[in-house]
Request: fold
Amino acid sequence: LLGAVSASPSMAPMAPAQASRFVLTGVVSSASQRGAALIAVDGKPPKPYRVGARIEDGLVLQAVAPRKALLGPALDGPAAFTLELPAPKS
Reply:
């Protein structure tokens, strides 16, 4: 009535955010903008990726910084998300 549309009960829940599939376990950064990151994908053991390497289709490691890694669709484009190392335990 009055243009209201009922929601379909069979709607699938939204997929988790893409960033939640990745866990940063280590970084090696340098002043020359080169570096690498250890990244675990979908709960698998972490693998090393150099800056510019393809993590998966449509996602590359754009840059690393102390305790961070930036991932995005292209090396020179905007970052899609940033992975951070967990805070050190005190």
